[in-house]
Automatic annotation (TrEMBL):
The keyword Ubl conjugation does not apply. This is Penicillin acylase family protein. The keyword Signal applies. Coiled coil: none annotated. Residues 1-30 form the signal peptide. PANTHER family: ACYL-HOMOSERINE LACTONE ACYLASE PVDQ, PEPTIDASE S45 PENICILLIN AMIDASE. It comes from Streptomyces exfoliatus. Belongs to the peptidase S45 family. Residues 219-229 have a biased composition (Low complexity). Residues 208-229 are annotated as: Disordered. Keywords: Hydrolase, Signal, Zymogen. InterPro entries: Ntn_hydrolases_N, Penicillin_amidase_A-knob, Penicillin_amidase_dom1, Penicillin_amidase_N_B-knob, S45.
Amino acid sequence: MHLRTRLKHLALSGAALAVVTASLPGAAVADSGGRGHHPSDRGLSAVIRYTEYGVPHIVAKDYANLGFGTGWAQAADEVCTLADGFLTVNGERSRYFGPDAGTDGSLSSATTNLSSDLYFRGVKDAGSVEKLLATPAPAGPSGDLKELMRGWAAGYNAWLRKNRISDPACAGADWVRPVTALDVARRGHAVSVLGGQGRAVDGITGARPPAALPPAAPPSAAAPGGVPDPAAAAAAARELFAAENATMGSNAVAFSGTTTANGRGLLLGNPHYPWQGGRRFWQSQQTIPGELNVSGASLLGTTVVNIGFNAKVAWSHTVATGVPLNLHQLTLTPGDPTSYLVDGKPERMAPRTVTVPVKDGAPVTRTQWWTRYGPVVGGLGAQLPLPWTATTAYALNDPNAVNLRGSDTALGFAKARSTRDVAETLRRTQGLPWVNTIAADSAGHSFFSQSQVLPRITDELAERCSTPLGRATYPSSGVAVLDGSRSDCALGSDPDAVQPGVFGPARMPVLRDTPYVGNSNDSAWLTNADRPLTGYERIFGTIATPRSLRTRGGVEDMAAMAERGGLTVADLQRRQFANRAPAGDMAAADAARACASALPGDPEVCRVIGDWDRTVNTDSRGALLFDRFWRKFTATVKPAEQWKVPFSAAAPVRTPHTLNTATPGFAKALTDAAAELRAAGIPLDAPLGDHQFVVRNGERIPVSGGTESLGVWNKTEPVWNAAGGGYVEVAHGTSHVQAVGWDGGRCPVARTLLSYSQSSNPASPHHSDQTRLYAGERWVTSRFCEQDILRSPALRVVVVRG
């Protein structure tokens, strides 16, 4: 008890954080290239109290010391993943892993190490992040954030100096090196541009003037002569930005006090992120006595809690439908493909020549071409080529390339006392690049905002300035292609925006204090089905268009919960693991009825689908068969032909409906699904958990949940390997879940779960402990208040010093 009493005094007194004694040196951000130098950690220290499942509660006297403890604790759990990411943002993957290997995709869409390095070396050589760090707040990052980054780098480096790496992914590797605060900022910048330049890395690094291009057949989305075909490009852009094809998604719902048992708010956050690599979440509590006290999850390498709660407010994010980029179609100067016309006057492109060191080979040098609008791109992924011809090129505008404010938004949320403070933080920082915000507070308020940093593409501007290509892509996907030859097609500025060329806060879709607000990666339109949001520009998302099955099922369940009332945190927990498959509710009965005619010689298929309980629990029999059928059916049958009753904007949650079993694709999908399972030796009525699992240290752990196409809230996008037994790993899906409310006391009532556990190191005791909880649909009771932390039977205290 003596130790616990001393720790309580240490954490609560503020003035007596005895392990943190020295005054801080002045803030500095310097680039060492990762060699030989690192931010000074002189005098930096923190207290880390570990509770169950390896969750660290980090206490420090100021932001630099808090960053120090956070960097140390993240390194202890994820040093190899972190080191890999720092190699990425310094453009050194080819040096160590070769140019042709691929990245983990966490920090960009680059398909090879060489493409990744060429892009990130270009950012580094241009000093892009240094310029942002030098920009005064609010357009640039705050002093508190800079101190966090400085401390984080020092803490990471201190852990490296004082510990031996046990993770086989990088033990003994010479590419695990000290980092600088600038490296931490570069990583944050990479996260900011994920939806813009990060989506187009191959297109940026591969763009060549026509004289430098080898002869090749026109790409699939281009018409003869290299001009993109508008119809094909529109389809490709729609596919590229479709939520169902993304590796990140999320659900979140906030209930107002009018629906809850005690009149206080409730929040359930269920982000869907990759289970491996550098886009994993990591749990912690960060405390500066008297200044900051927040608990939740951080994306690896970030210094703040991105999704979380404090004593008064809880918030989560969902990936938004706003398109954080646009294209400008350039009219090139006759005879000079590296010069373009604006109002009839030529402007030279700026070459950015980048050299990348390569393992076992000569360095590779390439030139990227930049314009007043941004870099020239040869395409947006393989689906949407944008040929650079003698007359035309395309430049990409990404306003988040000058946005390093996202972590200041998170800091503001961490200190918020109400949803009004959350809204004020969004107005002041304007830092979120590609997510919505859903929040609730202890006073009973609910809040939704699609506050994104988006190009200021109004529908009027798109109508006036779109090229023929843009007239096809903008309505279908929100990707604007503007005429870059006209200065009157510039994006302009809103008076309340912190940077030019983006929408100001007054233009954002917002909904406050309705019984529920929720989002499942569709547009803001049905945030609350009884209060549809309208009036926003197309670039934010669509209005009065079909919703995903996950949105439809979510709205049905959220509305029913709100109408029932008397809600508690336990209701949120039950909602998370209800594992209802909306596709099953809508289509299984129709499929079972039509099955006898479609498969007259195979009554077992009909029986199994008919008997399925319409859930994706681990003990559900028939779920696997229906899942494999539904994937094949939706992949081969056009959406307009899947249902007999089409979508109606007057009934957007209930339509479309009634499975179209007359389409030839129905019988084929059933036949192929049954044959696939039998060929793999899997019984058609096998329990889902027998064939949907992950393996950790030799232990097979069954997992529940279902795919995007089934519409399951508890989303699981698994990896199919018939020879290995079915779904043998999870690629992405449910990650850090939090169910949060308040009961009038000083401590929030919070339950959390990190589906893939805290550490990717197989030698860690926290490599799979929460994964087993997830398999059993059990939760972690959050220890937020001091008395709860100090009562933890797993309490372990580490005092970390520079």
